[in-house]
Amino acid sequence: MNSVMIKPLKIGKVLLKNNLVLAPMSGITDMTFRLIAKKGGAGLVCTEMISSNALVHKDNKTKKMLRISKDEHPVSVQIFGSKPEAMKEAAKIVEDSGADIVDINLGCPANKIVKSGAGVRLMDNEKTTADIIENVVKSVKIPVTIKIRIGRSEGENLAPHIIKMAEKLEVKAVTIHGRAAKLQHSGKPDLSAVKQACESANLPIIGNGGIINEKTASEFLESTGCDGLMIGRAAIEDPGIFERIEYFLNTGKTKPEPSWEKRINYLKNHAETASEYYGEKVALLRLRKIAPYYLKGLPNATKIRASFNKIVSLKELDELLSMVWKSPYFEDV
Ligand SMILES: Cc1cc2nc3c(=O)[nH]c(=O)nc-3n(C[C@H](O)[C@H](O)[C@H](O)COP(=O)(O)O)c2cc1C
């Protein structure tokens, strides 16, 4: 048995069935993928980050990002921006769209976002950050959470200070991505810094960064004492990772990793569900970003990936995926 176990996490009034969260991922965690991750055992799913300015200006494409299925609750919608007034208006729009939680992005290191004064840039600007949080909290009844980086560069730990501010402003949970912003998405998370932050916190802390399997999940929980885990890229390789981690933490036993057949079926199922919503052509275009994760490690993945970028219909996808089994690696399948 493990020393850490799965426990239901409560974020404000929202009770999750466990403490495992699908990370917000731009271009990936749309409704289709969130439904898949929910089936895979996630206790909370998050939208990709949505521009508060675009929401306020009623941009059609952005409004579509707010589509929520009745089958995916509880769902957290993440917004980004640098203007307190726009963030406040956007949070109201998010609440009206049926979200259970609104999350504020304080951790995105992408150039475009940072240049606009949003994302991780806000961690340098305490006054604006406080204004944004205060405006958002006051404008909605649903719980407000924030997602931060541990710091801007390695060795820096800004989390305890931001957490104190968040507590005063009635934020209900904080996600800490344990990698410094300069590291983007690579390198190891600083677990001792996350531990320090958890020790100073009086609200739930969700740890994130580098959780790829049962072992890394239990290490993260054990060494930081955080209340929940958020999983990003490993959930695209196996959306059933939440179920696997929950099983392991509750029983000490491991479930087998998904077979290739199962992973290919995830991809097919994703393409079919996305086609119902976007139409086949757009769905397959969007899948170009996601397919490499589903196919990671496949013996002939490079060849398949290259062809993937040319297909525009489900029929072509079926034909392409049938190639998988023609690899000598799968002779016995
Ligand atoms: C393709 C991609 C898109 C991402 N988009 C967002 C986003 O919209 N909002 C956000 O807060 N983080 C975003 N992230 C960061 C993830 O939420 C997560 O913090 C990061 O991937 C680390 O977790 P992991 O090591 O489990 O992947 C993104 C990451 C990736 C790889």
Which SSEs are present, and which pair or pack?
Layout lengths: L9 E2 L2 E2 L4 E3 L8 H9 L5 E2 L3 E2 H5 L3 H5 L10 E6 L3 H13 L4 E6 L4 H5 L10 H14 L4 E6 L9 H10 L4 E5 L13 H10 L4 E4 L5 H11 L3 E4 L1 H5 L3 H11 L8 H19 L1 H15 L6 H8 L5 H9 L11
Parallel strand pairs: 3-11, 4-6, 5-6, 6-7, 7-8, 8-9, 9-10, 10-11
Antiparallel strand pairs: 1-2
At a glance:
With 333 residues, this protein is of the alpha/beta class. It is built from 15 helices and 11 strands.
Structural notes for this entry:
With 333 residues, this protein is of the alpha/beta class. It has two domains: 10-251, TIM Barrel (Alpha-Beta Barrel), CATH 3.20.20; 260-330, Putative flavin oxidoreducatase, domain 2 (Non-ribosomal Peptide Synthetase Peptidyl Carrier Protein, Chain A, Orthogonal Bundle). Helix content is 45%, strand content 13%. It is built from 15 helices and eleven strands. It has helices at residues 31-39, 52-56, 60-64, 84-96, 111-115, 126-139, 159-168, 191-200, 214-224, 233-237, 241-251, 260-278, 280-294, 301-308, 314-322, and strands at residues 10-11, 14-15, 20-22, 45-46, 50-51, 75-80, 101-106, 144-149, 173-177, 205-208, 228-231. The strands form two sheets. Strands 3, 4, 5, 6, 7, 8, 9, 10 and 11 form a nine-stranded parallel sheet that branches. A two-stranded antiparallel sheet has the order 1-2. α9 links the parallel β10 and β11. The longest helix has 19 residues, at 260-278. The chain starts with 9 loop residues before the first strand and ends in an 11-residue tail after the last helix. Bound molecules: flavin mononucleotide (FMN). The site of flavin mononucleotide has 22 residues, from α10.
